[in-house]
Fold this sequence. Notes:
By secondary structure, the protein is of the alpha+beta class. Helix content is 29%, strand content 42%.
Amino acid sequence: MPYETLEHTADILVRCTGRTMEECFESAALALFDQMVDIATVEPKDKYSFVIEAEDIEDRLFLFLSELLYLMDAESAVMGKFSVRSEGSELRCEAYGETLDTGKHRPRTEIKAITYHMMDIDEEGPSVTVLFDV
């Protein structure tokens, strides 16, 4: 698994790894959806694309995960495959999934928000640590 859950008293804290920062962002997206549903049951039927822009890498991670959470909330989209490309201050994402079916996808935890609290980005590792507010 490209992420691990870390000990936290009330929320969900995850450390996500990859060979590149783009892969770390993909791992963070995977961790986000894996906390909300059983992503093993998500099929890549639909494609969701978006671009976010932020000068700061922490802001890019926050906005990226917040956009994915918005798609879950607004469109009932669950995703299990991600492709992230970083181009300067822009981050481009193509995500693949389908509409939530509670019988098929077995809901787990409701994530209310992405937070900056305890966010850590290690560009040398590389890894990202992010807290999901439940």
